[in-house]
Task: structure prediction
Amino acid sequence: MRLATWNVNSLTARMPRVTEWIEMHQPDVLCMQETKQADDKFPEQQFAELGYESAHDGDGRWNGVAIISKVGLEAVNRGFGTSDDDHGRRIVSAECAGTRVFSVYVPNGRSLDNEFYAVKLAWLARLRTTLDEMCPPGSSVAVCGDFNVAPEDGDVWDPAAFVGATHVSDPERAALREVEGWGLDDVFRRFNDSGTFTWWDYRAGDFHQGRGMRIDLVLVSDDLVQRATGAFRDRDARKGQKPSDHAPVVVDFADS
DNA sequence: ATGGTGGCCCGGCCA
Result:
């Protein structure tokens, strides 16, 4: 099974690149973030023609998350596990080929002194609670998406440039470790060196200067770690005409 | 260099 995640930064703007990428790389499951679409604009039919079932949660110009799958997509859950307090359209999950797959878009946080930084930490804590509520111990789980956290200093182009910045702070990294504490592993790490980034700012030539971060993660349960055969991020998807500012992350698993 | 670019959609927010 090939599992991928991609912050597409507007699926409306990105659909040509997304369909091209799907046809080239043939993911079995693709999680997307920042679709920036309402549900009635989501191109469900176009994905169906490519062989995918889909689940989307979005309400307009902000956020929006989706999962498309050609290995089954059942028991869709929009928002957090058992609560009705999430209106952010930042988390959707579904059962795909025996794995509970989450597509998540963690709040950015903006800056350490911003009120949205506390929102980000609370959101990550709620994600852990959701895993505890929804996923029985020992079940097969993959949490995929844009975490807006670089797990280690090797995941940013220059740690000195990020002192006092969001995405690298100790509380954010601790909150990410709490999510992983459910029993999840940052599987991409096992197959790639540090400095393999997934996001580059559009501005100031950051992509061409190598000024990136690794903030798009695939966190998987032990059964999937054992089955993982490789992982890569497709830097080519960040090149060319109208790219997203994120590259897709792909993890391959042997059949169970 | 407190800018730069790109998405939403047209004034300003968000990343």
User: Anything to note?
Assistant: Residues 2-253 of chain A form a domain with the Deoxyribonuclease I; Chain A fold (CATH 3.60.10.10). Chain A has a mean pLDDT of 96. The two ends of chain A are 9 Å apart (CA to CA). Chain A has one domain: 2-253.
